[in-house]
Amino acid sequence: MIGAGQTNFGSFPNETYLSLFESAFDSALDSVDEDLDPSVIDEAFLGTLGVGGRQIGLSAPAVTEHIGLHGIPTTRVENACAASGFAFRQAVTAVESGRADIALAGGYEVMTDTSGDRTRWWLGVSGETAWERMAGTTFAGVYAQMADAHMQKYDTTKEDLARVAVKNHANGAENPRAHLGFRCSLEEAMDAQTVADPLNLFHCCPTTDGASAVIVASEEVATAVSDQLVRVAATGAASGSIGLFNRETVTGVPATRSAAERAYNQADIEPAAVDFAEVHDCFAIAELLAYEDLGFCEPGEAGRLLREGVTDPDGEIPVNTSGGLKSKGHPIGATGTGQLVEAFEQLRGRAHVQVDTPQIGLTHNVGGSGGGVTISILEAGQGGDAWEESKQPGYISLGIVLPAVNLRLRGGRVRRVVSRRRQCQRPTKTPWQWQ
C-alpha cells in the first residue's frame, strides 16, 4: 500500500457518492510520499451496496470517470458490508498477478438521506431473504440472537457488551473523522434504549455517509514512491451461510475463522504476532466474537480481554483504535477500506490514537452476519528511496530535481510514475446530483 485516505464519516446532505469518493481519492493521493500521477493507475475495484438505489448499475465507472480515471478497467464489488474489503483483495490480486502495477481499491455509500424504514429495507437486502428477512428479522435481531446464544453458553454479560461501546467511543472521541466522536460512560452504555434484546442503542453502529480509498502497487513502484513501505502480507477470505439457521454454531462466525486461518498461513504468522486490529463491530457482540474467531483468545474469553484492558490502545492487542464501526461509523461500501486506512496510518506512525511501534496490523471486514469475510494483514516495511534509482531495476532517472519524474519500462513501454500533479482531467461540474 502506497497511499490511503478517507472522508470524514457522518451525515452529509450536500454530498453525493461521487463527491465523497473524490475527496477520499484526493486524500489517498496526498498520503503518497512522492507525487503520484493518477493516470498511471492501471485498474480500479470499488465497493458499494448502493443504499437508496442511486446509480445501482455502473456506479463504479461513474466514480472513476468523475475523478479523472475514465477508461481504465473498473469493477464494482458488492458483498454487503464487506464490499470494499473484497475490492481491496481484488486490487491486490491484480498487482500480484502482474496484470497491474498500480491498482485502486475503495468504497462509498450514502445512507442518511432516506427514511428510517427505507434504510432498514436497504440494510435488509443483505440478509437471508426466504426465512429471516421475510419473517421480519432485522440485522439487529440476527446479532441479538448471536449475543443471546453467547451469553447463555459462556456467561457473557451485558456489561461486556457495554464495554465495547465505552472503549470504541473513547477511541473515536480522538478521531476527527468519526461519525459519533464522543465518549460514553459504562452506565450510559448499559442503560440505553433496547433495540433488540439484549442489544441496546449503544451496542449498535450508526448508518453513515462516507468514502475511502487505498492505492496498491508492486514492490518496484512502492520502493520508488514511498519512504515508509507498508506491505500487504495476506488477504484471506471466506464465504459462509447467509442465514443463522444453516450454521453449525451461532456463537461464532465460521467464515471469519476460515478467512483468518488462510490469512495467518499466507502471512506465516500466529495470532499472537498481531500488534493491533480493526475489527467489524457493527454490533457490540460482533467485536466479542471477532476476538475469539481471530484467535486472540479462547471461546468465551472475549469479555475478559475487555475487562483486563487487553484491547485498549495501551493493551497487548489494541482493537479499533479508529473508534470502529460503533464510533467512527459504518458507510457500508466504505467500511473495509476505511479499516485499511487506519491500519496504514498506524504502521506509518500517523494514527490519531497511535499504538506504540506496531509492526503487524490486521483488518477484519464482515458482510451481513457472516456471509462473506475478508482478513487483511499488513506489515511495516523498510523505508523506500525514490532517489536511489540505481537500486531500482527498470527505472531510468531523468535527473530532474523536485518534483521527481521517474520513467519505468513496462511491457516495452515507458510510463510516467511520479510527476507534477495532476494531469488527468476531471469534469468541471457534476451534471446530475441525487436529491
What this model shows, in words?
The longest helix has 16 residues, at 139-154. It is built from 14 helices and 14 strands. The chain has helices at residues 17-31, 59-66, 83-97, 116-124, 129-133, 139-154, 158-172, 186-191, 219-225, 254-267, 284-293, 302-307, 324-327, 335-347; strands at 3-6, 43-47, 74-77, 102-109, 194-196, 199-200, 210-217, 230-239, 276-278, 360-367, 372-380, 395-397, 406-410, 413-418. A hairpin with a 4-residue loop joins β10 and β11. The strands form four sheets. It has a five-stranded mixed sheet, with helices on both faces. The chain has a four-stranded mixed sheet with strand order 8-11-10-9. α7 (158-172) crosses α11. Helices cover 33% and strands 18% of the residues. With 435 residues, it is α+β, with helices and mostly antiparallel strands.
